[in-house]
């Protein structure tokens, strides 16, 4: 399986191909509740993900990462653009065909507390997609649930417990087991470790890497800081105000961060050496991010201007 994944990564078969993706949310107002403006949450995203690859999607809060992930999975209907999964155009598929495609594409959610039903045992939570898609009789499904629990590092003995009896990290493992149940090829992980303690974050990230090899998975991994996606991603897309400001190999990004916003994100990563950490210069971008309701025509202009001002300030500080 591992070899298969590596081969397709090398040959570069595209599994997910996104072109010109836009998602606009209407803002209603006035006495007739008409659409008075639109939030341009995603405003022309182009992205491809090769089979077996992990693409990290980073950017600050509100830049449109979750909306992009959901629109790719057709959990939100895109306003415009094309999303192909394994060559099939998803945006024009009728809803019953989309439902069938769910077998191949799944989501792991950010909030391990809110994303699991409090009324279901974890056995039922993981079995539900298998039952919905009639993937075997009761015994086969129970066996599969026990297997999935083992795969994500939980004791199958816990099968009859409820979500509230588990820690955050364990709950996220349950969410991952549920996402894996239908054996998808593509998973959108929306900030899967952001709500977890730092030590637990590493465990869940390692688990996701192991599962990628074991099951030949392709990930779109959403995070709001680069340090989380640094190790897991083959390529990183930096999103800013509904668009991809930068997309390159993760190694390349650290050597030559081109976009000022990327540089600011990189400078925010703490260094695990106290002396270097003390000397680390953080680039703080000033001002507010422009509103996605009325974004600037040229994405780069405002942020480049800010960066130039900051750079000039840093230089003059150094001279004094
Ligand atoms: N259902 C909705 N209706 C209206 N506006 C929305 C809706 N969902 C998201 N938005 C807006 O779209 C923009 C992008 O939101 P999104 O949740 O994709 O950001 P994000 O990058 O995932 O942020 P975070 O890091 O905080 O999760 C935001 O301005 C948000 O307020
Ligand atoms: Mg989000």
How is this structure best summarized?
39% of the residues lie in helices and 23% in strands. By secondary structure, it is an alpha/beta fold. The strands form two sheets. Strands 6-7-8-3-9-10 form a six-stranded mixed sheet. A four-stranded antiparallel sheet has the order 2-1-4-5.
Helix share, percent: 25-40%
Largest sheet: 6 strands, mixed
* Total number of domains: 2
What order do the strands of the largest sheet run in, or round the barrel if closed?
Answer: 6-7-8-3-9-10
CATH superfamily of the largest domain: P-loop containing nucleotide triphosphate hydrolases
Number of separate helices: 12
Oligomer: single chain
Taken from the alpha-carbon principal axes, the silhouette is globular
Number of strands: 10
Q: What is CATH's topology name of the largest domain? A: Rossmann fold
Radius of gyration (Å): 21 Å
Pairing-aware structural class of the strands and helices? Answer: alpha/beta
CATH architecture group name of the largest domain: 3-Layer(aba) Sandwich
The ligands found in this model are: adenosine-5'-triphosphate, magnesium ion
The proportion of residues in beta strands is: 15-25%
